[in-house]
Fold these 4 entries.
Entry 1:
Amino acid sequence: MYTKIVNLNEDDVDEQILKEAGEFIKNGKLVVFPTETVYGLGANAEDGEATKKIFEAKGRPQDNPLIIHISDFEDVDKVVRNISDSARKLMREFWPGPMTLIMEKKSIISDVTSAGLTSVGVRMPSDKIARKLIKFSGVSIAAPSANLSGKPSPTDVERCIEDLNGKVDYIIGGNKCEYGLESTVIDCTVNPVCILRPGAITLEMVRKVDEKAYIDPAIMAKPEPSLKPKAPGMKYKHYAPKAPVKIIDGDLKKTIEKINEMVQNYIDDNKKVGIMATDETKNNYRNAIVISLGSRKDIYSIGRNLFETLRDFDDCGVDVILSEAFDEEGFGVAIMNRLNKSAGFDIINV
Ligand code: TXA
Ligand code: MG
C-alpha cells in the first residue's frame, strides 16, 4: 500500500492537508496523526470495515476495544448515553486533554470499534492538528496508539513511519508529543469512577471531581489470575523493547552502586548494557550506553522521553536495559505503570 507522508508545523497548520486527510478518514482509510499523548492510528469509528483495518495494521487482538476521538463537546451526546454527573464534571475540568472516559455506547459507533462491548472510551484531544483532523473528517475517529502491537507507543513521527509505512494510507507528522504517555482511562459507568490506566490526569486530579475515585488495583501489581485488569488492553504484554528491562528501585545512591555492579557482571559476560538514567545521575555510570530520560525535578520530562528511549536502546542493539525507578505519585504512577510493564515486573529492590 502507498502511504502518503506529510510533516506539519503545529504553529502554522496547513489546513488543506488536514481537509484531505479528513476526507481519507471519512472514506474508510487509515490516517496516522499526532496528539498531545502519543501518535494515533485513526479510522472512522462509525465504519466497522474501516476500524477492522486498524486491528490488522497493528496486529492488535480483536478483543481489545478502540477509543474514539471527538473535537467538540456537542459530539459527546452523539456517541454515548446515560452520562453520569461525574463524567460531565470530568469533561468540563480536563477536556480537551489527556483523558479518556468510558461510557455507555450508542449504536452509531461500530461494534468492531468497541470489540463488542456495550461501552466505549471517548477522548477530546488538545492537540491542534488532531482536533482539526477530527473536525474536517465530520465523524468521530477511532484511534489506538500508532505502533505495532506490543511495542512502545510512538511519540515521534519517525517511529510511526518505521512501524506503519506501507500499512496505512496517510501519516501526518507534527511536534513531539507533549506528555509521551497515553491518556488516563477512567471508567465512568461505575460509581465511584475507576482509573483503568493511569496518565497525565492523575488520581489526585480526578479526586477533585469524585473524592472516592480509585485506581484499578490489578494494574500496578504483577499479573496474576485472581487480579484481572478491567481494561482489556492492560492485560497484554506491552511497551516491550527487544532487550529485557530490569528496574532497580530504592535509595538513589544504592541504585547507582547496584547498577554499576550489575554492569560489571554483564561486561564480564560480554554483554552490551543500556542504562536509563536521569540528568542528576547520568555521570555516575561507566562502561554502558547511558541515556538520560530527563530531570527528576521535572517528572513530565521523564514521561515525554520514556518510550522513545526504550526504542533508542533497540536501535543500539543492547542486550539488557537497566532502569532507575521513580516515585509512584502524581504522574509518576503512570511512568512506573509503563516501566513495570516494559520490564515484565522484573524489579530489583536495593
Ligand atoms: O492517549 C491515548 O489514549 C492514545 C491516543 C492516540 O489518543 N490512544 C490509546 O489507545 O492509547 P489504545 O487503544 O492504545 O488504548 C486504549 C485503552 C486500552 O487499554 C483498551 O483496552 C482500553 O483503553 N479500553 C478501550 N475501550 C474500553 C472499554 N469500553 N472498557 C474498558 N477499557 C477500554
Ligand atoms: Mg496502545
Entry 2:
Amino acid sequence: MKVGKRGAKGATGGRSTLRRWDLQAAVQGITGTVTYNAPLDAYTSFKIGGPADVLVEPADVDDVRRLLTNVRGKRIPIFVVGGTNLLIRDGGIRGIVVSLAKLRAIKEEPGQVLYAEGGVGMPTLISYAIRRSLAGLEWAAGIPGTVGGCLVMNAGTRLGEMKDSVKAVRLVDTKGELLDLPAAAIPFSYRRARLPKGIVVGVWLQLRQGAKAEIERIVKDYLHYRRDTQPLTMPSAGCVFKNPPNDSAGRVIEAAGLKGRRVGDAEVSTKHGNFIVNRGRAKAADVIALIGAVRRAVKRRTGVKLDLELKIVGDVSRHG
Ligand code: EPU
C-alpha cells in the first residue's frame, strides 16, 4: 500500500492490476461516501482532473482507520486530496482517492490550543481563531487548502509557515492505528513535512491570546494584498514554480514577456506571472504544455531555471 498526500505518481498505467473486487473489499464497512469512477475536477482548486477509480469520503476517523485496515498489505494506492498546489492529470488517479471533507470539527483546548480535523479549510480555521482572539495563524491568510494538506506540505507564505504553528499531529498509520506525534518529532523543511506513512486526521495548533481587532487587521491587509496581486477569483493551483533564490518566479516570468501566454484554456495569469489560471475548460495536458513553454522561454530569455512547486499526479489520458 502506498499512502500519502502525494502518493499517486506518474503514468503508472496500473488499472489492470487493480481489480474491482479488491477495491470493493478495501471500502467494505465504510459509512461515509464511496463513489466509483469519480471525476476529481471538483475536488481541486484548478477545477481540472480525470477520475479516481474510487473516491472515499470517510464519515469520521473510525472510517479512515477502517479503510487503512482493509487495505493493509494490499497493493492498493491511496492518495489524499486536500492540498491546493495540485494538478491531477486527465487520466485520473488509479486506486483510492480520499477526501477528508467530512472531517471538519474544530475544538478549543486549554492553553490557547486549537485541534482541527484534517478536512478543516484554512480560511475556516482562521475565522474560528479570530472569533476567539487567538493569534498565530495570520501567516496563513489566503491559503485555501485544508489543515491536513497544509501540514503535509508545510504550507507557508512570506509571513510564516505551518511548522511555526503546529503543536502535534494525529495520523492514522498503515496499520489503521492512531498515532499522535509532537511537532518536535516531525522534520519540517521548505514545503515539506516528513511523516510516517498514513493519513493526517487532525492537527493541534499552538496559538496565543491576542487582540481580536489586531489579528483581524493583519489578516485583512494580507488578503487585500493577495487580492490585488493574485488572480484569486479564477481557478488555479496557487504558485506554479518555487521562487528562484532571492527573486520571484512571477517577476522573472513577467520579465520574459510571458504573461497572458495560453495553451487551450490554460493561461499565464496577466495579474501574477507565477499563476496559471483555468479560463474554463483547460485540460491538465494544456497546463503541462504551458508549464514546459514557460520554463523553456524563461531559461532562454533570462537564464533562470524554474523548479515546480505544483505537484502533478495521476495518469496521462489515454485519449491524448
Ligand atoms: N512580481 C512581478 N510580476 C509578477 C509577480 C510578482 O514583478 O507577475 C514582483 C512583485 O511586484 C514583487 C515581487 O515580484 O516585487 C514579489 O511578488 P509577490 O509579493 O507576489 O510574492 P512572490 O514571491 O511572487 C510569494 C509566494 C506566494 C505568496 C506570496 C505572498 C512562492 C513561490 N510564492 O510570491 O505563494 O502568496 O509570496 O506572500 O513562495 C503559493 O505558494 O502558492 C503562492 C502563491
Entry 3:
Amino acid sequence: MILESFVQGQWVRGKDAVEIRSAVTGEVVAQASGGGLDMGAILEHARAVGGGNLRRLTFHQRADLLKKLAQYVNDRKEQLYKLSFATGATRTDAMIDVDGGIGTLFVYASKGRKELPDGKFLLDGAAEPLGKAGTFAGQHIVTPLHGAAVHINAFNFPCWGLLEKLAPALLAGVPVVTKPATVTAYVAHALMRMIAESAILPAGALQFIVGPTGDLFDHLTCQDVVSFTGSADTSQKLQRHPVMARESVRFGAERDSLNAAILAPDAAPDTPEFNLFVKEVAKEMTVKAGQKCTAIRRALVPANRVDAAIGALRERLAKVKVGNPELEGVRMGPLVGLEQRRDVLGHVGALRSEAEIVCGDAENFPVEGADSKTGAFVPPLLLYCAAPLRATKVHAVEAFGPVCTVMGYDGLEEAIALANRGDGSLVASVYTHAPEVAADLVFGIGSFHGRLVLIDRDCAEESTGHGSPMPGLIHGGPGRAGGGEELGGMRSLAHYMQRSAVQGSPAMLGGVTGKAAG
Ligand code: NAP
C-alpha cells in the first residue's frame, strides 16, 4: 500500500518513500510517500478555496456537514478497525480511536446547531455603552480566521486525532491541512480516502500531508493556526520556528502528561471506590498498551494502603493476556513499533533509578499468537516509588506504554503536592465517597489540570472514566501538557476565530448584530 497526500484536490505521490512496519509482525504494511510538495501552494489552496467555501456557509450548514461526514464514516468504519490491528490495537482500542473520532464529529454537529446561531459570525456579550448621550457604543464580534489550520497529529490516535481537531476548525469556518504521524499513517490515510470519496466537504476544506512538512512553517501567516499533538521536544522545536514569533501564529499543543489517579483516605480496601481505583489504573495501563496521552502514570495512595493497592493491581494485571490483537481473548497488543518499545524501556530504566518494578518482567512474559522479538510487545509494568516527595523522574518522565508508578502519601496536602508535581497534566482522577475530600482535592490540584474526574459508587456505572476526553469538555492541560485546549465545547472554536471590538453608533452596531444573526 502506497500512501499519498491529498492536496489541492488531488492525490499526489511524494518524492521519497518510507517503509511502515506492522507493530505485531514487523512486516512492511505500507510505504509513506512524502516530501517534495509545494507547501506554500497547499496553504494558499486552503485559504483561497477552502476558506472561501466554508465562510460562505452558516454555522448550522457547517454543523450539518460534520453530521453527514460522521454518518458516512460510521457506515464504513469496519475497514478502519481491520487496518488498526497492524498498529497493535485490539478491536476495543480501535473502537476508542475510530468511534471516538466519529462521536466527536456528531457532538460538534449537534452542539453547533443548538448553541450557535444560523449565521456566519458570532457576537460576544452585550453592547457596551460608551457615551452619555447613547450615540456611541461598543460590541465584541467573533469572526473566522482567513487562514489555514495546520493539524499535526501523534501516532496513537490516527482517526480520533484527525477528526477531533477537524470538527471545531470546520465548524468555525477554517480549512484544515492535516498531517498524521507516519508510523500509523495508513489508518489515517484510509480515513482520508473515505472523506475525499464522500465529497461531503467543500473543495479545499481538508488537505492531507503524508511525511515531512518541508518548508510549510515558512509560509504561515497571522491568520493561520497550528495545533500539535506529540512530544514536548517536537512541540518546542516547532514553536521556536522564527515565523511563529514573527507572525504571532497561534499555536496549540497537547504534549506529555504525567496524569495522576488519587485514592482518597476514605477509600479503604473493602470499599467500592478502592475497587474502582484498581480497575481504572489497570485499565489505563493496558488500553492501547498505555499509549494514551491521558493514561494514568502515577497512582497516589494513602501510605497505609500501598501494599493493598499493589496487591490488588498485581492480581488484576496478571489476567491481562498480551499478544496478537486480532486474537479473541487478547486484551493488550504491542506498542506501535520497535522504536517505541526501545523508547519506553529506556524511560522505564530512568524511572527505576527512583522506583522498583513490583509487577511485570519485560525480559520474560508470555505473548499469545505472535513473536515477542519481531513484534513490539511489552508487558504491563507497575513500579513503586518509596520516596515520591524527593523523587523527580517519576513526576517528569513519561514512559508512553503500559507503565504506571504507585506512590504513597501522608495526608491530603501531600497528595495535592504530589499530583501537582506533574507540572501540568491533562487529567487527574479522584476515588472517594466523601464530597468534602473531593472538594479539597479539586481545589488543591485544579490549576495544574485540564480535567478532573471524581469517581465513586454513585457514578461508576455511567462514568466515562479517567482516560476519555469528552468533546463538550476541556481536553488539554497547562504546563508540561502543552497549555492547549483543543476540545471543550463551542469555546474551542475560539482557537480558529478572532474576537474584535466594534465601536460606533447604535444604528451601525444594529447593522453588525443583525448580520451576525444571519
Ligand atoms: P512526535 O515524535 O513529537 O510526533 C508528533 C507529530 O509531529 C508526528 O506527526 C510527527 O510526524 C510530527 N513531527 C515530528 N517532527 C516534526 C517536524 N520537525 N515538523 C513537523 N512535524 C513534525 O510524537 P509521537 O512520538 O508521535 O507521540 C508521542 C508523544 O505524544 C507522547 O509523548 C505523548 O505524550 C504525546 N501525546 C500527547 C497527547 C495529548 O493530547 N497531550 C496525545 C497523544 C500523544 P512523523 O511521524 O512523520 O515524524
Entry 4:
Amino acid sequence: MFVSLLIFSLSLLGAPFSSLAQNVTPLSELQWTLTNPNHSISVPGHVPSQAHLDLHDAQVISDPYYGLNDFNLRWVAETNWTYTASLASLNLSSNATTWLVFNGLDTFSTISVCNQQIASTDNQFRQYYFDVTKALTGCNSPTITINFGSAPNIADALADTSLNEPWKASQLNYEFPNRWLIRKEQSDFGWDWGPAFAPAGVWQPAYIVQLSNNHLYVRNTLLDIYRQGQLNNLPPDQTKPWVVNASLDVLGTIPQHAELRIEIKDASNKTVTSSVAKNVTISGGAISGSIVVEDSAVKLWWPNGLGQQNLYFATVTVVNSGDTVVSSTKRTAFRTIVLNMEPISKRQLGQGIKNGNNWHFEINGHEFYAKGSNFIPPDAFWPRVTTTKIQQLFDSVTKGNQNMLRVWASGAYQPDFIYDIADEKGILLWSEFEFSDSLYPVAQSFLDNVREEAIYNVRRVNHHPSLALWAGGNELENLELYLAELYDPGNYSRWQKEYETLFLNVLLPAVYENSRSISYIPSSTTNGYLSLNHSAPHPMVERYNNETEGYIYGDTDHYDYDSTVAFNLSSYPVGRFANEFGFHSMPSLQSWEEAVAPEDLHFNSTTIQLRNHHYPSGSLNTTNFANSTKGMGEMTIAVELYYPTPDKADPLANFSSWCLATQIFQADFYRSQIAYYRRGSGMPERQLGSLYWQLEDIWQAPTWAGIEYSGRWKMLHYIAKDIYSPVIVAPYWNYTTGDLTAYVTSDLWESVNGTVDLTWYDWSGNVLSNVTNGTSSIPFTVGALNTTKVLQTNTESLGKSVDLSNAVLKMNLTTTGHLPNDKTLSIFTHEFFYHPILSLGKARLVDPGLNLIVNGNNDTTSGPTFTVRATSGVSAWTWLDSPSGVVGNFDGNGFWLVPGETKTVGFDVKNDTTGGEWVKNVTVSSLWDFSTP
Ligand code: BMA
C-alpha cells in the first residue's frame, strides 16, 4: 500500500505548526518492474535493490553465491536493465516543486519521467537530485524509468576511447577489466577475496520530494565538532571549548535572512545547549553556522575498551522570521581523534623512541593501541546488508577486543546505519575513498566527478564519532608509486604528479574544506608528510622515500606467502603501525556446504579452485587454474611445514580437517605478528596499532577473513580475540640461534604488577623437572602502553637436557588493573603455550583424551556452556565445532589444555534453525585428531 509521508516542522521557538513543508515519498513504495532490453525478462523489481537480487527473487537466476555462478551469471552484468514504475498513485500536488532524490545509483543510469529524459548519471557514490516539476506538468499517467547500462561494457568502451588512460602496468586486474575508469565499487569487478557480479540498480534509498513555496528539504547534513583552534591532522588543545559547526545542504531557496539554531540534547533528551549559530553563511544551496559548547557541558565519547560511548543529539534548525523552515537531527558525540604524524619530539627521543615521525592515533588527546582488522564489503550486493547482520558482525568485533576497523578503499562508502552501529559500539572506522591498487585518470571530468563524490560523503558521515580518518586509497604510495618508479622510471614524475593531482589536490581539500576534526592521508600505507602547512595552497608535502637512514616513518603492510619464514620474526616489518598483514585460509566445511554441491567438497575440486581468487585470474578467463593452484598450494605447504597433516579415512572428515588446518596456520601466523607488533609499543619503534587483513568474508571462499560469510568465526577470530587481550604474555623465539624470550605487553593506560607462571611439560603432561626453572613464578611490572621482558633463555642449551620435540612451555599471566576510564578493578589473565620445535608435525603429540560436557542444556536465557577437559596429554589447538544449522560463536576456542585442566565456554547463538538440537552435535577435537582415522 502506498503511504505518503507528511513531514511537518515544529518550531523550536514555540511557534505553531507551519503549513505543509515537504511531502517525501520513498521510491521503495512504488510497484517496480525490472526488464531486459527485449522484454523477454520482466519481473517485479525493488528499490533499493540490484538486478541480480530481483532476478533471484523471481527465480530467473539461482542463488548468485552458489557454485560457479560467479562465472555463469556474467550475462546479468553484461545486460542493460530497466526499472519502471507508475507514479499515478502519488497524488502529486501541482502547486509544488517536485524533486527526485537518489542517495545512490549503481552506476550508469538514464532517468526518464513521463517519457522525458531527466538526466544520466555515472557515479555510484554520489547523491543525485533532479527537479522533475516540468516533466510532470500535463502528464496524465506519470511513470518513472531508470535504465542501467552494463558497467563492464561501459568501462570497456571508455577504455577504447580514453585519452587519459592511467599507466597500464600499475593496474591490478581481477576479473572484469578497466575498473579504474569508472566510479563504481572496484571490487564489483572481482578481487582476490571475492566474486565479480558488477551489479546494477538503485542501491540506496531514493525519494520523491514535493516542496511548496518557501520550504526546504535537507538532503545532507554536515556536523563538525572540534576543539576551538583545531586543524586537521594536528593534536588540538584539549582545554579549549568545543565548536559545533553545522551545515545543511538543501533543496529549495534558503531565505536571505534565515537564522540557524543548534540544539544539543543528551541521550536522556535533556537539553545541553540551544543557541543561535554565529557566522551564518548561505552559499551553494547550503546554510552554515556554528556555536561554542563549554567543555564541562558534555561527556566524551571513547572507543571500545577505552571508556563509554556517550552520545548526543544535535538538531539544526533553519529559522525565518521566527518560523521554523526545516530542521535536521543527527546523533553525534564529542571526541577528538587525530592521526599524529608529527616529527618525533625531543621528549620522545629522551624516552628511547627512534627518530623519524610519529604514526599513531590519539583519542581525546591520549595515545592508545589500535587493535583491529580490515573491513571489506560485507556482501557483493549492498541492498541485502541488514542492520542485524552488521550488528552481529560488530558485536564480534568488540567481543574480539578490537577498537578499530580500516574500511578498505574499494568497496563503497559505508551507509550511515553502519557508522551508527559503530558509534554505539565504540568501533573507530578508518575510512577510505574508493581507490585501490591502480593509478587513476586525471581527466578534468573524472576529477570533477570524484570531487562531488568526496564532498558528499565527507559531509554525510562527519557527524559520526566513529569516523577516525580519511585515507585517499589503498596501497598507492607504497605499491602503485613504487611499481611506477621500478618499471617506468623515465615517466615516474608524471605518475607522481597525477597521483598528487587526485589525492592531494582533489581529495585532501574535500576533507580539509568540510571538516576540521578529521585527519587525512593520501594512501593507506604511507611514510607520512615532509611538511604540513594549512595556509599553503597545497598543505601537505609527502615524504615518499625521502628518508634518513635509521629513522622510522609511517605504517606498514606485510604479505609473505613463503611460509618457510612465517615465524621468523626478522621477516616482519618494523614500523609505527601495521595497517594490514595476512595469509589466506579455507572456510569451514559448514560454510562450503552452503555454496558447493556435495560432490565438489574436496580440497582441489574445480568449484573450490575457481572460487579461490588468490591469485586472481587477472581476466575473465575461467580456465586459468594456475593462479588458483598456486594459492591453494601455499595453504597446503604451510600446513605441511608446521602441523601434522590430516589423514582421515572419511573424505569429508578429511576435507574438513584440512580446512581447519589451514585456519590454524593462519591464526598462528597472525598471532605471531600481532604479538610482535604489540611488543613494539615498548620498543624504539613505539608501534601503536595492528589491523590485520581481513575481518570478514564477502562470500564462501578461501580468503584472509577471520569471520565467515554466515557470521561463523574461523580460528583466526578466536585467536585474535585472545592476543588482543589488554595484557598479554608471548614468546619471541629466534629458532636459528635458539634465543628465546617472553614479554608481557600491556595496552592499559596505567602501570600494573602481576605474575607470569612458567611451567615446562612433556606432551603427556608431566612437569619437566630437569629443566632449569621447570616451573617458576615471575613477578613483573609493566608500564602503560609498554612491554617488559619476563624470560630470557636459549633452546639450544635447553635441548642438551630435554627432548625438544617432547616439551611445551605454558605461560600463564595474572594481573589486576583498570581499563582506561573505568573505576572498577579488573583481573586480567592470559595464557600462551610455546613449543621449542618449529613444526608440531615433528612433536611427540599424545592423545589428550578430550572430554566434552554440555552444561545447562535447557537453560534458554544464557544458553548452554561447554566444558572441555584433557585427561591424558596436552591438547593443542583444541577446537569446539558447532554443526550446520546454527551460527554463532563460542566465547573462546583454539585453546590448549594440560591433563586435568578444564575450560568452560559459552556459545552466543546468532541464528538457530535446529530448534536447539545443535547442542547435541557440538564436537571437540585437537591437533592430535588430524592423524586419527
Ligand atoms: C592487500 C589489500 C587488498 C587485498 C589484500 C590481500 O593488497 O589491500 O587489496 O585484497 O591485500 O591480497
